Amino acid sequence: MIDSFQHVGSLDELATMAAICERCDLCETRTNVVFASGAHDADVMVVGEGPGQQEDEQGIPFVGRSGQLLISLLAEVGFERDDVYIANVVKCRPPRNRDPRQDEIDACKPYLRRQIELVDPTVVVTLGNFSSKLLLGTTTGITRLRGQAYEWWGRHLVPTFHPAAALRGGQRVKDDIRHDVGLVRALVDGRIQADSEPEAQTLRSPDTATDEQLGLFGTSQP
Questions:
Q1: Is 123 helix (H, G, I), strand (E, B) or coil?
Q2: Domain assignment present for 16
Q3: 13 lies in a domain?
Q4: Quick one: average pLDDT of 115-131?
Q5: Going by C-beta distance under 8 Å and a sequence separation of 6 or more, which residues neighbour residue 48?
Q6: pTM to 2 decimals?
Q7: DSSP bridge pairs for 51
């Protein structure tokens, strides 16, 4: 059973807990816990994979080159960094920036779950394959998932490429992210609605998915 942090009443309290967390082995190699940044009542919550070296050193998510690109693309549609809430699936840097292991993901699930509940955003934006597959409970890749919005636990979810992919992939990838950020703006403004039945073949709606397919949360609640 996934541990519950339902008793935690604020993001500040949750961050204090995370700062001394020893729920997995990443506590042994981290410099800082990278909990989150941004508005506690944000309309938009961004979820990445995990901290990199610069984030680990500063204790702030998305402060490197990919983070700077992300913030600039959000600013194009009127979202400043302080307007959005930025977090990651795991709060500590995996050594050599490897993918987080399942036990590390499981250890951080209660933090991310409670962050989403406390922020209560209108739109969750997942960056890249890792966080998108986890939160949507699918094996479908980000190239097929992106470009549309999904209904997700009473909210909207917009998957898009990780900005690091745009640094490698050039203008086309950047333009794709720019399009997806535009969807986020339109959802927040109430100008469009999310798809209730995504076309991705392996993606199922939360009320019909199994615990395994739900991936990140593993239960019927986020």
A1: strand
A2: no
A3: no
A4: 96
A5: 61, 62, 86, 87, 88, 89, 127, 128, 131, 162
A6: 0.87
A7: none
